[in-house]
Amino acid sequence: MADAQWYVVHTYSGYENKVKANIEKTIENRNLQDQILEVSVPIQEVVELKNGVKKKVAKKMFPGYVLLNMEMNDDTWYVVRNTRGVTGFVGPGSKPVPLTETEMKNMGIKSEEVNIGFEVGSLVTVISGVWENTQGVIKAINHGKQSVTINIDMFGRETPVEISFTDVKVER
User: Fold this and answer.
1) Which of 16, 9, 122 is nearest to 68 (CA)?
2) What is the per-residue pLDDT across 111-139, written as a single tens digit (0 to 9) for each?
3) Are 89 and 96 in contact (CB under 8 A)?
């Protein structure tokens, strides 16, 4: 996905997680996984002092904003723009402006490409987790989520399962 870039969407205050969930559901329903790679509400842990007690609390880094790693086209713009709770993309007028490399580094977003060493059609073995020692053929690769979808045999039926890059090993 060379065309995928990070964009910022403005939302109603307090609706960030609802917007994220709605966009992710729409991505799944419209099969846009290859165009909208990641939806993120950046969170940081903060220590608060209340009544003399220190407590770790997760706070949104950018209240009122959601970050999207996506390929900008008419379909993706329409889907995101018409999601309930979204007021618009960040940018002049109605033209969304992607984040620059410098802005992404300042926010802690990594942009390096992971060399995975396998491709669609490769036979892999799951090396950890629930499906450990299960073999399957890769049907799809999601670079945004850093996962692969493999078909496994479950109760006599082929069933797609999503597994992290780090949990699979290529069979030679």
Assistant:
1) 9
2) 555 567 778 888 888 888 888 888 888 88
3) yes
Contact by Cβ (8 Å): 89, 9? yes
Q: What is the pLDDT of residues 21-67, one digit of tens each?
A: 999 999 999 998 889 988 988 888 888 887 778 888 888 888 999 99
Return the number of other C-beta atoms located less than 10 Å from residue 78's C-beta: 10
Superfamily holding 4-107? NusG, N-terminal domain (3.30.70.940)
Q: pTM of the full predicted structure? A: 0.61
**Rounded to an integer, what distance in angstroms lies between the CA atom of residue 48 and that of residue 103?**
28
* 160 token code pair: 């797609």
Q: Which two tokens stand for residue 101?
A: 């490399």
For the segment(s) 123-170, the CATH number from 3.40.50.1820, 2.40.240.20, 2.30.30.30, 1.10.630.10 is: 2.30.30.30
Return all residues near 87 (Cβ < 8 A) that are at least 6 apart. 10, 11, 12
169/77 Cα distance (integer angstroms): 37
